[in-house]
């Protein structure tokens, strides 16, 4: 056996380097071609100091989604920014097709930046329903995603549906800053949960702002677990000869008390806290009750402003003074219909998450002072 090392190959001795000596680059793509949905992507790329990746996303004449990636992504970290417009199913398909296109183009890692995760309300078993959020998690993994950055999941347990890392960022620091800087005399405010299920989130805001807490409880609020799924009629009974069915105890039906406000809101600014504003009937009803109890200004703070259907008109005609949401979901059209809607930009924390993930830095800085209940 030779005792000395063999001479290096000629291509290494003449100044050539091997691949993967330095960290590979990264690219940021937008999985949606509409101008309303690319605004957040442009804000993120401007903060990162990079250009948006060259790609085209469009619908063919037969309504099929087509994605054309027009630059090399081999061996790079790819971040796909996908905001969810009104047509949520098309947006999901755009994300899946783009992730698969990048996977087959030999991208090193494919990270989905999905500020509002769709179908997150369907994350629990209701009666004999399905957990659609788990299905979507499986589809994203199959398409090639290796990591997800999202914000304020409807339920934190959704992270367990994935078999790859999920960073669930928080918008609360930005909304807390808005309260402190934009609401005059916020020290005279009280944080309100529009239902007992939202009390934990509202309590976190109240403790950080050193304010009081009130909870609305009663028949005006409809819990998600009580929503009808269209299968109320009992199934046909099948009897087996020689065997009688067991007599199970009958569960008593719930009956909600008349609507009440637990806490004193008289002469206060009421700030209602929630994670999603979609159908606003509950918020409008809560605002009327708070006005009757003496609140002189009513704000609504939420991360995701879906504002579906007639939401802008109902807000404009209601007792609500201002609705503050982040730009995780495009809502420029709704803002034109209702001047009460204000927007807080969260592109800063999304850009910092992208930078840290690519550089292999710790994400703990983005979760400082974040507790389990937040």
Describe this structure in words.
With 374 residues, this protein is an alpha/beta fold. It is built from ten helices and 16 strands. The chain has helices at residues 10-13, 35-48, 88-104, 132-143, 172-182, 199-209, 281-292, 311-316, 332-337, 347-359, and strands spanning 26-30, 55-59, 65-69, 77-81, 109-114, 147-151, 166-169, 189-193, 212-217, 260-262, 269-273, 276-277, 297-301, 304-305, 322-326, 341-344. A seven-stranded mixed beta sheet has the order 10-9-8-11-13-15-16. Strand 2 (55-59) and strand 3 (65-69) form a beta hairpin. Helix 2 (35-48) crosses helix 10 (347-359) and helix 3 (88-104) runs parallel beside helix 4. The radius of gyration is 25 Å and the shape is globular. The protein starts with 9 loop residues before the first helix and ends in a 15-residue tail after the last helix. Seems to play a negative regulatory role in 5-phosphoribose 1-diphosphate synthesis. Residues 33-144 form the Ribose-phosphate pyrophosphokinase N-terminal domain. Belongs to the ribose-phosphate pyrophosphokinase family. GO terms for molecular function: ATP binding; magnesium ion binding; ribose phosphate diphosphokinase activity. It comes from Gouania willdenowi.
